[in-house]
């Protein structure tokens, strides 16, 4: 069973639900109203995606011609600004095999292989690393998170992977393992603050990486949540799940298309932390809040203080003041027909039952 978005009006969708409910049809398709027409244009959209598209095209050309040095991408932004989620969404859209690794947790054995006894010689040798085996798949991209927090030795090895698409491997000819299917590498890091080391990259690293400064971007977040929850609606196993996902989608679209709704700035973040008003409001915290709520406005606002800056809650309440929860249209239809039994209850039906219904 598939649920889908379309351009029908709410009244049209409800009318179909009423007809299906009146006929006692199990699990009718739920037609969801797309709200993208209300989206407002916001600045800063697509910087990451454009950089990824350019790197993809350039890497394909370099691999085909067998010349030139590969270039990577460096994403610099606060935690929760959508660096990983946008790269992952881009990879899915383009059929790219994306391998995500935490550079900060790597050590030399991850990159050069663990030491092991060799039966043929009296010295220990390094086994080939298995950390990057997935890069053997066609059209692969490597994402290195917290790149700047990796040790100097690890970063030197990773730089060779970024630049030449190879890592040390004593068992390979020349002592290097080459990844011909690796298109390019994306590195991500947080800007300098009390916890992070900031931009400590040396000149060689900076020359190999195109830097993109990432901030919480409403337009990109709008597209991201639309894609995520549209997919959830399509893959829902029952109309109740589809209705909840539709509610999350419409709440996200309602907020992100309103000019009064803003993600936290660095100054806002410091103020909210000092006054103990919950976490900063960014793409990650908004996603967490939407996933936890049941798709209704009251539940969304009830969870707000646990995950987002409570100083911004009054603005959110005003934006959602006229928001109406997604109705359980078929159940409402049954109630109007005098039967409050949920039409979407799951039950097994024999072939005879199905034939009897048609008589």
Shape by Cα distribution: elongated
- Helical residue percent band: 40-55%
Strand residue content: 5-15%
DSSP strand tally: 11
For the termini, the CA-CA separation is 25 Å
Strand order of the largest sheet: 4-7-10-3-11
CATH level 1 class label of the largest domain: Alpha Beta
Q: Kindly report the CATH topology of the largest domain.
A: Rossmann fold
Spell out the key features of this protein.
single chain, 359 residues, Rossmann fold, 2 domains, five-stranded parallel sheet, 43% helix
Summary of the model, kept short:
This protein has 359 residues and is an alpha/beta fold. It is 43% helix and 13% strand. It starts with a strand and ends with a helix.
Topology:
Layout: E1 4-6, H1 10-22, E2 31-33, H2 47-65, E3 72-76, H3 83-93, E4 97-102, H4 108-112, E5 115-116, E6 125-126, E7 140-145, H5 152-164, E8 166-168, E9 176-178, E10 182-189, H6 203-208, E11 209-213, H7 218-235, H8 239-256, H9 266-274, H10 283-292, H11 297-307, H12 313-319, H13 329-336, H14 351-358
Helix pairs in contact: 1-13, 7-8, 10-11
Descriptive account of the structure:
The protein is 43% helix and 13% strand. The protein is elongated. It has 359 residues and is α/β, with parallel strands linked by helices. The chain contains 14 helices and 11 strands. The longest helix has 19 residues, at 47-65. The chain has 2 domains: 47-213, P-loop containing nucleotide triphosphate hydrolases (Rossmann fold, 3-Layer(aba) Sandwich), CATH 3.40.50; 239-353. α1 packs across α13 (329-336) and α7 (218-235) packs antiparallel against α8 (239-256). It has helices spanning 10-22, 47-65, 83-93, 108-112, 152-164, 203-208, 218-235, 239-256, 266-274, 283-292, 297-307, 313-319, 329-336, 351-358, and strands spanning 4-6, 31-33, 72-76, 97-102, 115-116, 125-126, 140-145, 166-168, 176-178, 182-189, 209-213.
């Amino acid at each position: 069973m598939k649920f889908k978005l379309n351009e029908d009006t709410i009244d049209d969708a409800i009318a179909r639900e009423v007809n299906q409910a009146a006929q006692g049809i199990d699990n009718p398709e739920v037609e969801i109203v797309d709200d993208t027409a209300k989206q407002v244009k916001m600045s800063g959209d697509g910087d990451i995606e454009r950089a990824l598209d350019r790197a993809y095209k350039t890497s394909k050309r370099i691999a085909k011609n067998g010349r030139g040095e590969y270039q990577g991408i460096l994403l610099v932004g606060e935690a929760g600004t959508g660096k990983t989620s946008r790269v992952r969404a881009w990879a899915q859209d383009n059929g790219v095999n994306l391998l995500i690794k935490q550079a900060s947790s790597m050590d030399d054995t991850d990159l050069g292989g663990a030491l092991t006894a060799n039966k043929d010689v009296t010295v220990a040798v390094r086994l080939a690393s298995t950390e990057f085996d997935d890069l053997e798949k066609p059209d692969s991209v490597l994402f290195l998170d917290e790149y700047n927090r990796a040790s100097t030795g690890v970063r030197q090895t990773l730089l060779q992977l970024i630049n030449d698409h190879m890592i040390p491997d004593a068992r390979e000819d020349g002592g290097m393992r080459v990844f011909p299917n690796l298109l390019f590498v994306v590195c991500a890091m947080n800007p300098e603050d009390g916890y992070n080391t900031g931009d400590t990259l040396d000149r060689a690293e900076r020359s190999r990486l195109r830097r993109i400064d990432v901030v919480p971007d409403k337009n990109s977040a709008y597209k991201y949540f639309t894609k995520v929850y549209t997919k959830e609606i399509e893959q829902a196993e029952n109309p109740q799940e589809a209705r909840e996902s539709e509610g999350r989608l419409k709440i996200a679209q309602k907020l992100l298309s309103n000019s009064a709704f803003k993600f936290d700035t660095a100054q806002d973040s410091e103020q909210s932390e000092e006054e103990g008003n919950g976490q900063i409001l960014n793409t990650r915290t908004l996603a967490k809040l939407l996933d936890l709520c049941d798709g209704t406005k009251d539940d969304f606002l009830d969870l707000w203080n646990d995950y987002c800056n409570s100083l911004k809650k009054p603005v959110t309440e005003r934006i959602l003041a006229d928001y109406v929860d997604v109705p359980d249209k078929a159940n409402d239809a049954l109630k109007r027909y005098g039967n409050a039994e949920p039409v979407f209850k799951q039950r097994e039906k024999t072939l005879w039952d199905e034939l009897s219904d048609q008589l």
